[in-house]
Amino acid sequence: MRHPMLAALSLLGALMLSSCTSSTTPSSGPTVEVYSDMNASMLRQTTEARKGSAEEGITVVDSIKIDRVRILVRRLKLHGTDDDTAGKDIKTEPFILTFTAQQQLMTTATIPNGTYRWMKLEFHRLSNDEADRYYTNPAFADFIPPERYSVIIEGKVWTRGNAMPDTFTYRSTVTANVALKFDPPVEVTSASILRLVMRFDPAAVFVANGNILLHPLDPDSRSIIEANIKASLKALKR
User: Is residue 48 one of the residues assigned to a domain?
Assistant: First the structure.
């Protein structure tokens, strides 16, 4: 490895969660709608950070643009109390949570009345049985052979002043169970639609020391990027 291991950041590409309720009249209880959204702005490296990259022996990057992030989610739950381990299921079957510049409706579900304090998101690789079950489903095609990925990030990277970017696809096998807390808690009744917007900010996924951009395909930076992905999911109520 060309440079010393850099500490993973505590707040990275944040998965921010905002919520609102609106009146409706469902017969079976409140409805939750889960949307995805992403800040797809260009990530640019400063002259000072570029110099730092060279000093650390890191591949020098001018800028990065993330076009799409896909996360393989195994389960999605809402929880009412801090010690509520059972929770209320939103999604129990694997699905692909996709982040682009366009907001997208990912899933809907009916939930009981009550106050919810946190959401649990599990992103994992498919099991053997799941890989067999979803093998012919085109939505899962990139997540099955050969490594059964859990996170796929696609974008463009500009290096050393080149006018034309290189496209890249970063594939990860990291797994995590992430608690996304609502602050303050959200209360829903049978006359409510709970809209949750998950916003993925990729700005710090390919970052070291807070400001040095890492080349997504540099093998010497992979351990830092993997740690960043694990630490990048946070919940903020807007």
Answer: yes
Residue 94's CB is within 10 A of a number of other CB atoms, namely: 22
Domain tally for the chain? Answer: 1
The boundaries of the domain holding residue 114 are 34-231
* Gap between the Cα atoms of 126 and 122, Å rounded: 12
List Cβ neighbours of 55 (8 Å cut-off, separation of 6 or more).
Answer: none
> What tokens were used for 56?
């650390």
Give a yes or no: residue 69 inside a domain.
yes
Q: Which of 104-108, 159-163, 224-228, 229-233 has the lowest mean pLDDT?
A: 229-233
Look at residue 173 and tell me if it is in a domain: yes
In a domain, residue 174? The reply is yes
Radius of gyration of the chain (CA): 19
Encoded amino acid at 18, one letter: S
Read off the pLDDT of residues 146-167 as tens digits, 9 standing for 90 and up. Answer: 889 999 999 999 987 677 889 9
> In angstroms, rounded to a whole number, what is the distance separating the alpha carbons of residues 160 and 112?
54
CB atoms within 10 A of CB 66: 29
Binned at pLDDT 50, 70 and 90, residue 51 comes out as: low
Which token pair is 6?
């850099």
For residues 202 and 35, the answer to whether their CB atoms sit within 8 Å is: no
β-bridge partners, 219: none
Tokens of 71: 């996360």
Query: Which pLDDT belongs to residue 138?
Result: 93
